[in-house]
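Record 1 of the preview.
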Amino acid sequence: MANTYRKVYLQIVFAVKNRQALLDKKWRGELFKYISGTINRRGHFSLAVNGAKDHIHIFLDYNGKELIEDLVREIQKTSSAYIKDKNLTSFKFEWQRGYGVFSHGYRAKGIIIDYIKNQEEHHRTKTFREEYLAFLKAFEIEYKHEYVFDFLYDKI
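->
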């Protein structure tokens, strides 16, 4: 019987919903470790989890055994519960509905990991909106502006 072999690298990006409930730098790293553990417990392999105050990037070796939408829903559900259970913010915390998922080849693995690890530095010169729309353009994803994330600074 033949075996099935695969190597699928995915980058998942999603944003914080409530403007006040931002990812505080004091506890952000703790949250990212928790999310990494969630990914690994589901049989995938977390390669990098990081973000900035208003969004998160996840890079993983995807096992292909569950729907991506189920994985993202579980990450969002468990991480929201973690934030609430640990009283990490006094504001109601939620992730925005929707997410971006982008595939990368094996040769890009190190580049993507470095990119995600350097989110704080990266966002000194580029907003999340600019970054996200650039991803959509680079991956030739057609979108309607009204269905893209409700970016935090649009409300200010």
